[in-house]
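Hi R.,

Here's the chain you asked about this morning:
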Amino acid sequence: MDQKTTVTLLELAAKSLLNNEPAAIHALDEIPRDLFVPLFNAAFLGGHKTILKAMVRVWPFRCLHIGSLNTRESYYDILEAMIDGLQMLPAKNSSSWGPRLRILDLRRDPDCKTICSEIGTAFPFCFKSCLYSQHSILKIEEAQHSVMCLGIGNSGSETQSAQEPMELLVDISLNSTLRTEQFLSFLCSKIQQNFGSLHVCCRNLQIDRMSGHRSILQFLDLGCIDHLEMDQANLSEVVTLLARVIHLYSLTLYNMPFKYFERRNFRSFLLCLGRLDNLQELSLSFFCLTNQLYKLLRVVPRQLDTLYLHYCSLSNRDVTVLSESSQATHLRVLSLSNNHFFSEVYEPLQTLLEKVSSTLQHLEIDNCMITDSTLSAVLPALSHCTHLNFLSFAFNPITMLVLKSLLQHLTSLMKLKYVIYPVPLHCYEEGNFHDSLDRQKLAEVQAQLEAMLHGAQRDDMKWVTCDFHSTRRSFNTDVWP
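And here is the predicted structure, written out as tokens:
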């Protein structure tokens, strides 16, 4: 019997067991370890909260990850059931059978399996363990292992806590909805009940309106966070939080409610950015940076590879500064959308494209007032971006003639698969692209472009459009990157 057949039989056995919930719970003490993972997957997909809680309580492996699993039940209901099943184990639990769970990972991670391989028996390891906090299992076990190796440990309880430390990995969104508030209240209660034994590791934190969520932040170890999103916070609040979040990989700030930077807060903000040595993704929206971008680029790491600057009131000088920065030779993802700085001035954009041509994979320049003359001038530089796989330049006043020329040049970029283009001017009344749209003319444009792609043997390249009168793009979002 091959391995695939064995897995299928285990899955069938798990589904059969779930048909009788009381029997399934009663059988958890008797079933072989090999059945736990398929039984957990089936229970999660089926939304069996009671069984999930019971399984967490007796989980025979060191770690448990939900990975890519989805459920038809309320997501928060499932999380609460699994967290409620956490059982703080006595220190030095040496039983080779029975509950061993130390890390419960409730993040949706498509690349993560239900359990990790355990390396060795004396010092088992989970690849998703928290790396930064001094309260993490990894840090605690490293310290204990060092003490044992030095031979200065003892068999008493002085060096051991009453309970084995446990780790809960969970992404948190502070969005003020009632269900979210209920979940956070439940989580805080669990932390308080197991203070000192349960380490909550939040890697991805989203905050909507900072002022209403200060209390929950007291329960979080902010040193664990590597992805932070903040919406509608003032700069002083951002600075206060950034001072404690030192291991960020990704930072997103949008809807900052001010029009002019207070110099003191902006300087503090830049100082905080300068301490984020691991930062690789930075996204700012509605964040006024007119002629200030050079200050920001001076402090962010040169290895920054993703930069979103939406509605940042950038000037041509800012684009020139970006092209001359050390980051320009590392950028893979760049978005300058909704900054009206190009118009008839093309040199800054041309220089920038030349600098990023060896690394750039994703480019967005929507609604930047790019005209025919500007696009034609930068086309040679754009054609040298050989790694480009996504391009969006919607909502720019472009004619059909230049659009066709662009397509002819870009078909040579074999990695370029997706292009979002603007509706050509002739498809609008009087050539004004705020006037009514002629859908028939737009359909003819799409047909012409598809014919050109077919003629160039680039049926793998998708060209789609969107217009000011509809925010729905004419493509299947399920296959869009």
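One quick note: Residues 439-455 form the longest helix (17 residues).

Cheers,
M.
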